[in-house]
């Protein structure tokens, strides 16, 4: 500790202490700092009065005034709410704190996520998958900020203590070969469960042009047309609706059952009513009154139109008539024997 006028001051520039005047104190303190007026008892003593009773009374009054003023000063200082800066209770350096974090994460990993790992395991994978998740919330493991400066040196210290065994299986690549789960450091370590702090999730707005392309879901359909409209209209399916192959068979089975068209002696045979016969029979087949299920289903499908549906992620399926044209790529020759590549039908699949 040095003060004004000591040898250190004399060896320097010898600057005088600036006069800053009186400090800014509360009004009560300033009034107290002023010279008090002399009491009438003192004036009487100056005039020649030597009464001991008056002197004693004056001393008592001064003591009371001093006590009351002291109480006022203490109250005002309390109102100022002056807070001293908290002292650093942890005298350790940052590297020592990081050493402790690494050691705790290392030991806790062997008692939690790395308890049943397969050996050998790369030291980098062990650090990333098992040690990093053991760090307390709001803190990260950084071997560079420790006294070891490198992860390899920290693990070498653990190997020297007899906790793990490390071997360089490839040049410059170290792996942990085994661990001594009976080591005193591991057995005495108490697992601390950290509560993960969930940060509020803000959904990022992505424009359609910035999204990664995802191909649509393509389904081949059979479209209800005039040829089969009488059959499907009785089942609540409108003209122009698209049905998959399995849906066509389900509607056909439903129609047959509702109209009792299945042969009771042979379940694989269906009796043809005028509606079905008008759809599936051709010229020269007027004498056909029954048909097997597979043949009936095939003929009904053949009478329907082609169609397909495209379902892009996030959108409802869209039904289209006709066959789905594939993407066509071909080369062509332009003037000057210049080769060009022509690509068509990209717009059907949502590719600009």
SSE-based structural type? alpha+beta
Q: How would you describe the shape?
A: elongated
Indicate the proportion of strand residues. Answer: 15-25%
Number of helices: 12
Low-confidence stretches: none
What string, H for helix and E for strand, traces the elements in order?
HHHHHEHHEEHEHEHEHEHEEEE
Can you describe this structure?
The protein is an alpha+beta fold. 36% of the residues lie in helices and 16% in strands. The chain is built from 12 helices and 11 strands. It has helices at residues 7-10, 27-33, 40-46, 52-80, 94-110, 123-131, 151-160, 184-188, 229-233, 245-258, 274-280, 293-303, and strands at 121-122, 164-170, 173-179, 217-223, 242-243, 269-271, 290-292, 305-311, 318-321, 328-334, 338-344. The strands form 4 sheets. Strands 5-4-8-9 form a 4-stranded antiparallel sheet. A 3-stranded antiparallel sheet has the order 1-3-2. It is elongated. The chain starts with 6 loop residues before the first helix and ends in an 8-residue tail after the last strand. The mean pLDDT is 80.
């Amino acid at each position: 500790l040095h003060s004004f006028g000591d040898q250190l001051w004399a060896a320097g520039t010898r600057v005088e202490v600036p006069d800053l005047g009186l400090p800014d104190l509360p009004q009560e303190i300033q009034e107290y700092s002023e010279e008090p007026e002399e009491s009438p008892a003192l004036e009487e003593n100056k005039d020649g009065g030597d009464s001991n009773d008056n002197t004693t009374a004056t001393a008592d009054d001064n003591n009371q005034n001093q006590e009351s003023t002291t109480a006022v000063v203490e109250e005002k200082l309390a109102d100022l709410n002056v807070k001293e800066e908290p002292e650093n209770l942890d005298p350790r350096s940052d590297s020592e704190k990081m050493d402790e974090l690494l050691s705790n994460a290392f030991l806790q990993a062997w008692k939690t996520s790395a308890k049943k790992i397969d050996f050998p395991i790369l030291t980098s994978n062990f650090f990333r998958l098992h040690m990093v998740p053991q760090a307390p919330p709001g803190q990260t493991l950084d071997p560079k900020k420790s006294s070891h400066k490198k992860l390899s040196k920290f693990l070498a210290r653990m190997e020297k203590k007899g906790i793990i065994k490390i071997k360089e299986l490839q040049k410059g690549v170290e792996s942990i070969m085994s661990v001594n789960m009976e080591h005193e450091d591991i057995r005495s370590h108490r697992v601390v469960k950290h509560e993960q702090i969930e940060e509020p999730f803000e959904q990022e707005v992505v424009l359609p042009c910035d999204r990664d392309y995802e191909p649509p879901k393509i389904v081949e359909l059979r479209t209800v047309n005039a040829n089969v409209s009488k059959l499907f209209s009785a089942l609540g399916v409108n003209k122009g609706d698209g049905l998959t192959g399995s849906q066509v068979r389900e509607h056909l089975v439903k129609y047959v059952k509702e109209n009792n068209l299945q042969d009771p002696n042979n379940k694989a045979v269906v009796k043809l009513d005028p509606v079905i016969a008008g759809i599936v029979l051709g010229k020269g087949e007027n004498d056909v009154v029954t048909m097997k299920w597979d043949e009936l289903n095939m003929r009904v499908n053949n009478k329907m139109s082609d169609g397909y549906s495209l379902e892009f992620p996030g959108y409802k399926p869209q039904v289209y008539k006709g066959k789905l044209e594939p993407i066509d790529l071909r080369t062509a020759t332009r003037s000057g024997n210049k080769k060009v590549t022509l690509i068509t039908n990209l717009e059907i699949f949502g590719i600009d």
